[in-house]
UniProtKB/TrEMBL annotation:
<feature type="domain" description="Cupin type-2">
    <location>
        <begin position="100"/>
        <end position="154"/>
    </location>
</feature>
<dbReference type="InterPro" id="IPR013096">
    <property type="entry name" value="Cupin_2"/>
</dbReference>
<feature type="domain" description="Cupin type-2">
    <location>
        <begin position="271"/>
        <end position="323"/>
    </location>
</feature>
<keyword id="KW-0560">Oxidoreductase</keyword>
<dbReference type="InterPro" id="IPR014710">
    <property type="entry name" value="RmlC-like_jellyroll"/>
</dbReference>
<dbReference type="Pfam" id="PF07883">
    <property type="entry name" value="Cupin_2"/>
</dbReference>
<protein>
    <submittedName>
        <fullName>Quercetin 2,3-dioxygenase</fullName>
        <ecNumber>1.13.11.24</ecNumber>
    </submittedName>
</protein>
<dbReference type="GO" id="GO:0008127">
    <property type="term" value="F:quercetin 2,3-dioxygenase activity"/>
</dbReference>
<dbReference type="InterPro" id="IPR053146">
    <property type="entry name" value="QDO-like"/>
</dbReference>
<dbReference type="InterPro" id="IPR011051">
    <property type="entry name" value="RmlC_Cupin_sf"/>
</dbReference>
């Protein structure tokens, strides 16, 4: 261990079965090479004190709502939550805020799987030749190559956009200008310029359709279950594949089965709760976005409380834990790659029927988690952290 580190490093010591790597890592590195690299990265990442800004490379950070790097794009404000550089070339993420009539014309990304979640207001959604009315809480999954677009139909609308790719944000940025605005300016112009659209196509992974917002019959989003394959789909608010574990209820909005293993999206909700045990992951990045209530988080040796609209990114290696800090807290998790999905099925019970967290906490199957630890990409270090803190307190 490098003795300039201010505190001990808990090294990655979990060896996952090769089949797990085969599923999630579509390149030629051997599991041994990956693991060796993982140890080095873990050592560095666990020293980082997260700050409220985009870091420019892969390390833990958080962002207060609507205060990140922003672009004014045809009457919307695009607030960047993650660039390719901040995620180690794994993903990009943004919120898009705007008023009635603003949006993004129909387009597709050749190499980027997109997920959309409507945080506020109402929108029309074009997806794969269909048109939907998207209400607050509705979700859409858009695999590579699928046509999609949206247009806001309420005066205050906000869309979460997740890009499992690294080239989409460059295209979106080329469509607009950097801005100091936090919401769309009162004189915002909702106009689409074909020249800029062509520039965006040259700048990144985007190709616009000939018709921007085709007239099609619009229908409500009512789908309640997830498809088993990587196909475009919509999902109605508060639906998905549901699990209950302890006081919390989890709904998968996208699963690794329908994202080609690239990521999954999970909405967690619960009452005020205890901090879960501190842990880290060797392989996957977890992104937390607070939707309702408040989420207390520990990231490495810092504490940060996320309010609605706030975001935290926790890459592989970073120590973390959370507790729900309000009687009704809800947060979205974007986890990539998707291998950690099995955790929810192992810790909780599947087939939960209700649409709200349970009145009485259900059982947490830590026994099952402990048995599956090696394949779950989970290193629990609560005990080691307590020992470390006790030793520090004694010295002080
Ligand atoms: Fe975690």
């Amino acid at each position: 261990m490098n003795d300039t580190y201010p505190w001990p490093v808990f090294e990655a010591d979990t060896v996952l079965p090769a089949s797990v790597y085969d599923r999630i890592v579509p390149h030629a590195e051997t599991p041994e090479a990956l693991l060796a690299k993982g140890r080095t990265i873990t050592a560095r990442i666990q020293q980082v004190t997260p700050e409220d800004r985009l870091p420019g490379h892969k390390q833990p950070y958080y962002l207060r709502a609507d205060r990140s790097e922003r672009y004014l794009v045809a009457g919307t404000v695009v607030n960047v939550l993650a660039r390719a550089a901040d995620s180690g070339d794994m993903f990009e993420m943004a919120t898009v805020t705007g008023g009635k009539g603003a949006g993004q014309p129909v387009h597709r990304h050749a190499q980027t799987h997109v997920a959309l979640y409507l945080l506020d207001g109402e929108a029309e959604l074009w997806l794969d030749g269909e048109r939907f009315v998207m209400k607050k809480g509705d979700f859409a999954s858009v695999p590579e190559g699928s046509e999609h677009g949206f247009r806001f139909c309420a005066h205050r609308t906000k869309m979460m956009v997740w890009y499992a790719g690294t080239e989409a944000l460059a295209a979106i940025r080329a469509l607009g200008e950097p801005t100091d605005c936090h919401v769309q300016p009162d004189d915002a112009e909702v106009a689409w310029d074909r020249e800029r659209m062509a520039a965006a196509e040259r700048a990144g992974d985007i190709a616009f359709a000939d018709e921007m917002f085709p007239e099609l019959p619009a229908r409500a989003i009512t789908r309640a279950t997830l498809p088993e394959d990587t196909v475009p789909y919509t999902l109605a608010a508060d639906e998905g594949r549901k699990f209950v574990g302890g006081p919390e209820y989890f709904a998968l909005l996208a699963s690794q089965e329908n994202t080609g293993g690239k990521f999954f999206v999970v909405m967690s909700q619960g009452p005020e709760s205890e901090m879960i045990p501190r842990h880290y992951h060797n392989l996957h990045t977890e992104n937390f976005f607070c939707v309702d209530g408040a989420l207390d988080m520990i990231v490495n040796r810092s504490r940060v409380t996320l309010s609605p609209g706030d975001f935290a990114s926790v890459p592989a290696g970073a120590i973390h834990a959370y507790r729900m800090a309000c009687p009704f807290t809800r947060f979205m998790g974007f986890l990539t790659p998707g291998l950690f999905q099995n955790f929810f099925e192992t810790l909780g019970e599947s087939g939960y029927e209700a649409n709200v967290y349970p009145r009485e906490p259900h059982q947490l199957r830590f026994d099952r988690v402990l048995k599956e630890l090696e394949s779950l990409d989970l290193v629990v270090i609560e005990e080691q952290m307590r020992e470390l803190e006790a030793a520090e307190a004694e010295r002080a």
